[in-house]
Amino acid sequence: MIEIAxxxxxxxxxxxxxxxxxLAALGEMVSERAGxxxxxxxxxxxxxxxxxxxxxxxxxxxxxxxTGALCGGATALLFxxxxxxxxxxxxxxxxAITLGSLGFTGVVFQGRFGATGLALELPTVPVWEIPxxxxxxxxxxxxxxxxATAWVALLLAPALGWFLFRTRWGLALxxxxxxxxxxxxxxxxxxxxRILAAVFGxxxxxxxxxxxxxxxTGTFAEGMSAGKGFIAIAVVxxxxxxxxxxxxxxxxxxxxxxLQFALQAVDADLPYPLFLALPYVLSLAALAGWFGRSRAxxxxxxxxxx
Amino acid sequence: MCLFLAALGCDADSDSAADSAxxxxxxxxxxxxxxxxxxxxxxxGLQLIGDSLGFRTSHQxxxxxxxxxxxxxxxxxxxxxLIFGHGFEYQDAASRAAELHPEVTFVVSxxxxxxxxxxxxxxxxxxxxxxxxxAAGAITRSGTVGMVGGVEIPSARGTFxxxxxxxxxxxxDAAVLETFIGSWDDVSAAKEAAAAQLRxxxxxxxxxxDAASFGFxxxxxxxxxxxGEAWAFGMNRDQNDVAPDVIVGSAVINIPGIFxxxxxxxxxxxxxxxxxxxxxxxxxxFVPNPARSGVIPAASLVRIDEARAAIVEGRLEVPxxxxxxxxxxxxxxx
Lengths: 306, 334
Description:
The complex is a heterodimer of chains A (306) and B (334). In chain A, 72% of the residues lie in helices and 2% in strands. With 306 residues, chain A is an all-alpha fold.
């Protein structure tokens, strides 16, 4: 009975840890499908966390989710204006956006709450407990005791699958990521598609950040994005640029992280950096093609030719 | 990069009130000073030096070892005579910079190496951590206590070893859980690590992280909201007011006071060799949270006071990790 309770709470925290990674990774997947690799995703996550915190303090947790997504989107717009509109190097621009965001959010936080900081107690987004289903053993709490952000991540996977592979706009978006020349020849406006895709990805990364501050922890700290934007980029690779694959890969990262804490707490005498590294090793394996062929969009990271 | 970060206000703020002829002191932290803990204490120390001694002050946040070197050299070349690197992670970069700039004094918090112009501060926080452990052993009902750490560096390990010893001094059969999250400011990781320990039955938890502590306290707060009887301990700085509803006490270093003393000694030319502080000098202590008085039984507080006296008088040796290296080469200048 104790083991079932332990397994159930392990799964609950695994899903909780996976949600922000899934949201950011699904957004990045759309961006990369359009040919834009946004290393500045981490910046969108931290702006989303801070924007969400400030929005929630002003107008409640739901408004906070909205302001978080907007802040993430605005960060990605800044990135896209440079990297797509002006065709600056995507990697360098993204790195600058990430570093700048980590610094600026600190300035805003310290300006608002004092240089030495304080542990904010933010209003949190309520958890929806689905009656009956949440009472299921083992999987019940993990699947049916989650906040709205988890449902957004879950519903986005089929929605994005339909959009990318079943609609004309999805085709245009993928064309922009495979060959700008062909897409332009077909009459698509590559620059606009890429900017919109990047901003969409930024909004989801911002929502991921708002999830961190308003759902998961109920507080904000400088640097609390803690590399989740970068993990999301790895998850896109591991998920092979497909919505369900990305969702599964994010869940896998969540499980690996939760497992690491569970094992350390029961005093399994294993070196903890090993667990921290495990998901990345698997991402490398995915890149090397151990889990079947994976191919990045052909024009990923390339010039937009605006 | 350095300029870029500085321009972004990674806090190269200087005190314009002080005149430019005044001695200049700089502080490097590897994390945000808004952590209400380890880094915040150092920032308060820097401000105290500026306010009390009239020094010019400057602070920079540096993340990577390459930035450590660059920032040390940049400050040394711009006339800063006293530079604090706040944490063990600065030791190597400070040693290199100290060789290049013999005219500048480099101070490393929780450092391990001494030199003519290289001064480690050894806080002796393990002694306060031991007293906190005694309190944890007294208040745990389940007999399981937990420790959530950032990165497994000697100074962090040392506080945990002492905490566990303190727990077992009052509760010999206690189980002590230990988790490192691999980061100092990953709030959600700290929260999940604490939650995992709470699920294992831990009901008295201490941390040694920086900004991530906000998530650690939140996990204990949520466990209490669900009807559990769990308590948290603060670390490094008096955190009793950071989460007054869940913190029963803090293992505190008076970082501002120690920084001020270091700067005074430096100005007087008497700074040399490692700065050794501890319970004996009153620089570290276990401070129960006045807002939660009564949680720690009065009899236990008496035992803690007795242990404090025994440590100060040298009758009780707290287990420690001695990370101070024997001084190499020249003896420290006076």
